[in-house]
Amino acid sequence: MKPIKFSVAREKLEQDILDAAKRLFAQRGYGGVSLDHIAKAVGASKQNLLYYFPSKEALYRRVLHGVLDVWLSYMDALSQRPDDPEQALREYIAGKLRFSREHPDDSRVYANEVISGAPIFAAEIAERVIPSVQADVAIFNRWAECGLCRQVDGRHLMVLLWASTQVYADWSSQISLVLGKQELDEADFAAAESLIVDMVLRTVLLPSRPDHGDATP
């Protein structure tokens, strides 16, 4: 039983290191965090931390890979409903806001990396994020070709969707100040979802045609 207990303890410490690193990278950015900071947050020695991760950059990359795993899992609504633009967009926006609420540190770590020009993670972003975006843009184009929605620039629509949802994680402190409260709550995210969905659907969907039935004048 001892090897099993040791393995569980090792996995827990590794996850504790990742969680502490993510929290600190979200707060201070890559340059503002040292291995000593992370080790102190975990309550371990720097040497112990280096046993799991050989460098700060290796730890940072591992954190960002985990962030992308979670982030991309919230971005598959469009592909799941390829013939229903309205429901797909509703679910996509709801999912992105849920990501911002449930994983704010993930969003901030990614935002910090991108704002700084993606000096460390550019190749991984190009490999994992760009194909996902291109696939979603292709869905928008197909919707338009099939007459299911207006002809829109899917690239800019994706940017708009990201900006309007991730801001509730990346700039939550400012939004809280604007709303005059300590922190955002479920009602705030519900209000944001309602407004964003309404704005996007009005822009993307074609106006519904009145149904006159079979009655003759």
Annotated CATH homologous superfamily of the largest domain: Tetracycline Repressor, domain 2
Structural class call reads mainly alpha
For this entry, what is the oligomeric state of its chains?
A: single chain
Distance between the termini: 84 Å
The gross shape turns out to be: elongated
Might you state the CATH topology name of the largest domain? Tetracycline Repressor, domain 2
Mean of residue pLDDT values: 92
Low-confidence stretches: none
Question: Which CATH class of the largest domain is shown?
Answer: Mainly Alpha
Helices and strands, in order, run as HHHHHHHHHHH
Number of domains: 2
What is the correct CATH architecture of the largest domain? Orthogonal Bundle
Question: How does this model look, in words?
Answer:
This protein folds into 2 domains: 2-54, Homeodomain-like (Arc Repressor Mutant, subunit A); 63-204, Tetracycline Repressor, domain 2 (Orthogonal Bundle), CATH 1.10.357.10. Helix 1 crosses helix 2. The protein is an all-alpha fold and 217 residues long. The chain is elongated. The mean pLDDT is 92. It is built from 11 helices and no strands. Helix content is 75%, strand content 0%.
